[in-house]
Amino acid sequence: MPELSIIDYMIWAVQRKLLKGEARFYEALKDKYETIVTLYPET
Predict the structure, then answer these.
(1) Is residue 37 part of a domain?
(2) Which of 9, 14, 20, 43 has the fewest beta carbons under 10 Å from its own?
(3) Widest CA span in the chain
(4) What percent of the chain clears pLDDT 70, i.e. is strictly above it?
(5) Nearest-CA neighbor of 35 among 8, 21, 14?
């Protein structure tokens, strides 16, 4: 299912930015995201 692959990649890009600080994948897609909600804010 190609749609699932696209969503997986978008989630992976956000995860990589949040956990590793690597933003290049996120930056390439940032205009495609509408809303990103953090459920576990940093403490």
Answers:
(1) no
(2) 43
(3) 37
(4) 95
(5) 14
Q: Which domain holds residue 10?
A: 2-32
Q: How many domains does the chain have?
A: 1
Provide DSSP, the chain: -HHHHHHHHHHHHHHHHHHH---HHHHHHGGG-S----SS---
Q: Decide if 13 is inside a domain.
A: yes
Phi and psi torsions of 31, nearest 5°:
-80, -5
- Hunting for tokens 């590793």 — which residue is that? 20
| % of the chain residues with pLDDT over 90 | 51
Asked if residues 25 and 34 have their Cβ atoms less than 8 Å apart, the reply is no
